[in-house]
Amino acid sequence: MRTRLSVCRRKRRFADEGEAMAVALAATITLRPYRCDRCFGFHLTGRTKGKRSL
Question: 51, exposed or middle or buried, with CB in 10 Å at 0-12, 13-18, 19+?
């Protein structure tokens, strides 16, 4: 499923997966990084159903 451009613009963009992973692990809620198909950077999402945990 493609990321909507309006969603991409609102989210914080990370240059690489390692940086996004560090922020996700430091967060108080469960987050996981994913590569955006719009900007080709990494964003964080709280949707973890059926996905691997960090």
Answer: exposed
For residues 44 and 29, the answer to whether their CB atoms sit within 8 Å is no
Number of H-type helices and E-type strands within the chain: 2, 2
> pTM of the full predicted structure?
0.82
Q: What is the dihedral of CA 9, 12, 18, 22, to 10 degrees?
A: -160
Mean pLDDT by 10 residues, the chain (54 residues): 85 96 95 93 88 70
